[in-house]
Design a protein that fits this description.
Layout (H helix, E strand, L loop, with lengths): L11 H20 L11 H12 L3 H15 L22 H11 L5 H14 L13 H24 L6 H22 L22 H21 L4 H17 L1
Helix pairs in contact: 2-3, 2-4, 4-5, 4-9, 5-9, 6-7, 6-8, 8-9
Length: 254
């Protein structure tokens, strides 16, 4: 659009203001060819989508794509804003590692979705729980200490339920897994490792005496939820990856 300005009818200072305004308008028009105004696709999610797509993980890629569009919103008639149309940039990388890192960078409302994708993939790949180095990060120490207490509590609860269970082998296998987790956490925490409590009280669980199988399932689910929560709020990618690996094996162990 061309605007005609009659300079002779305005004072000098007003002419300068009009000139600047017109220049800005023209600049905005030319920039519009490069980037449309409106909501933009989230760069972290589209990057993860591209990595998943390149690796053939189409379910993950489609889930992330839908989340990108959801964040963009839509017009009253259901159309996606034109500014949210995008093409994936070529990207390579390990999908699980990318998802783990994306949890921290994704919008707050998208973190749980990305974490769920990471957990599903870790379970599908049957990832092994990695070795745990000594923990020096204060936030990670706090998280690990809470999880250690969770593992102590699970061990106590399973031993308590043992008296009501006919399948002792099942109890033995679960206790073995929890003890291994507890030992790993305690070693990594060193002097910062809390001592186990003398006894535990559990709410929102079935009665161990009346239904020991349901009680055990509830204990396992509660413990699993603690690991997922730790992954969700982990302060480092390495700690998040460890928690995800434990959680993935947790489901496999139950």
């Amino acid at each position: 659009m061309i605007t005609t300005i009659h300079w002779v009818t305005f004072p000098r200072q007003f002419r300068l203001h009009l000139a600047l305004t017109t220049t800005f308008a023209l600049g905005a028009t030319s920039l519009g060819g490069c980037a449309l105004l409106g909501p933009q696709p989230n760069a972290q999610l589209t990057r993860a989508e591209a990595v998943a797509h390149a690796a053939g993980q189409e379910d993950i890629a489609n889930t992330l794509h839908e989340e990108v569009l959801r964040l963009c919103g839509h017009h009253a008639d259901g159309r996606i804003p034109e500014s949210c149309t995008y093409e994936l940039e070529p990207a390579e990388g390990d999908v699980l590692d990318t998802l783990i890192k994306t949890v921290a960078k994704a919008p707050e409302e998208s973190k749980d979705l990305v974490l769920t994708q990471a957990l599903k993939l870790a379970k599908e790949q049957q990832v092994e729980v990695p070795a745990l180095d000594p923990i020096s990060n204060a936030d990670v120490q706090d998280s690990a200490a809470e999880l250690l207490q969770t593992e102590y509590g699970a061990i106590w609860a399973l031993d308590y339920a043992r008296a009501f269970m006919a399948d002792q082998e099942h109890i033995d296998n679960l206790v073995k897994v929890h003890r291994k987790r507890a030992e790993q956490l305690a070693q990594a925490l060193g002097d910062q490792a809390p001592a186990a409590e003398a006894g535990w009280l559990f709410s929102d669980t079935a009665d161990a005496e009346q239904d020991p199988n349901a009680f055990i399932s509830d204990i396992e689910a509660l413990s699993y939820d603690h690991w997922v929560k730790a992954a969700r709020y982990a302060s480092t990618d390495a700690w998040r990856g460890y928690c995800i690996a434990v959680a993935a094996n947790y489901e496999l162990a139950t």
